[in-house]
Amino acid sequence: MTDAGTRIVEQTVRISARPETVWRYWTDPQRMCDWWGAAAELDPRPGGTYRVQMGAGPIMSGEYLELVPYERIVFSFGWEATDGGVPFVAPGSTRVEVTLTADDGDTIMTLRHSGLPAASVDEHRAGWAHFLPRLVDAIDRAAAEGAER
What we know:
By secondary structure, the protein is an alpha+beta fold. The protein contains 3 helices and 8 strands. It has one domain: Alpha-D-Glucose-1,6-Bisphosphate, Chain A, domain 4 (2-Layer Sandwich), CATH 3.30.530.20. The protein has an 8-stranded antiparallel sheet with strand order 1-2-8-7-6-5-4-3. The longest helix is centred in the C-terminal third of the chain and has 24 residues, at about 120-145. It is globular.
């Protein structure tokens, strides 16, 4: 869902794992790299910062704002400037809320990204639509290998 007036992207996925497992894929650098980036530096506590590098490309960065274990993660979000350019979405300038709800052994995960500049809403909607299925796949692969559930 996107509301151009408030510049929000919202997406929900069902994941065949408990919220505790999904939580780790948002707070553990190695697991985050299984689905979102090539390198990650995470300090998952209120006021802690994060940086996630997308391959040899751009770097996302921001600050953790709220963490309710296994239920909710809120962080600021943006892109660091590359090649001296001005980032389209400045680091920490938008807000991402991830809600994890247990549902019969699975997790219903809702991601809500707000505060986006109007010109970047479609790009970020497409980005989340690309990466959230990668999260689901990474957790499914680990479960198949007996590493997660």
